Each structure stands twice: as structure tokens, then as C-alpha cells.
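TICKET: design request
STATUS: open
ATTACHED STRUCTURE:
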């Protein structure tokens, strides 16, 4: 179990460093306003449901966790 936790923390650290470098360079990460995200705007009401973003994040997390578990 300690080995899995170490792998998870290592991968999480690599992901955070990569995202930090991209943000520092001014590169915007396109998550949050993808085609497939539902946005309903009325006069003084906005409803935002990130459907496509949620699916992509779920897929990436499933891939990462399966790679950790596989080894």
C-alpha cells in the first residue's frame, strides 16, 4: 500500500508541476468551456454544468489510477 501511495503522490506532483509551468507561461488550459458543457443564461441567472469537462477529467483520473494499480 505504501508503494501505491508513493506512486500516486509522484504522479500528482508531476501533474501539478506541469500545470504550474503551463499557467506561468500564460498557456490557458481549455478545461471549463468545452463544447458539450451546458450553459444557460437568463437575465440575472446563469446555470453552468461542465458535462464534457467532467467526462474528460473522469477519463484522465481513471487512466492515472489504473496505471498506478497496474504496476
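STATUS: resolved
RESOLUTION: sequence designed for all positions
ATTACHED SEQUENCE:
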Amino acid at each position: 500500500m505504501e508503494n501505491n501511495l508513493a506512486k500516486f503522490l509522484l504522479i500528482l506532483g508531476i501533474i501539478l508541476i506541469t500545470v504550474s509551468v503551463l499557467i506561468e507561461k500564460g498557456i490557458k488550459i481549455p478545461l471549463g468551456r468545452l463544447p458539450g458543457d451546458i450553459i444557460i443564461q437568463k437575465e440575472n441567472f446563469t446555470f453552468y454544468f461542465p458535462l464534457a469537462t467532467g467526462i474528460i477529467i473522469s477519463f484522465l483520473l481513471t487512466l492515472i489510477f489504473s496505471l498506478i494499480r497496474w504496476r
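CLOSING REMARK: The chain has one domain: 2-70. The chain has a mean pLDDT of 81.
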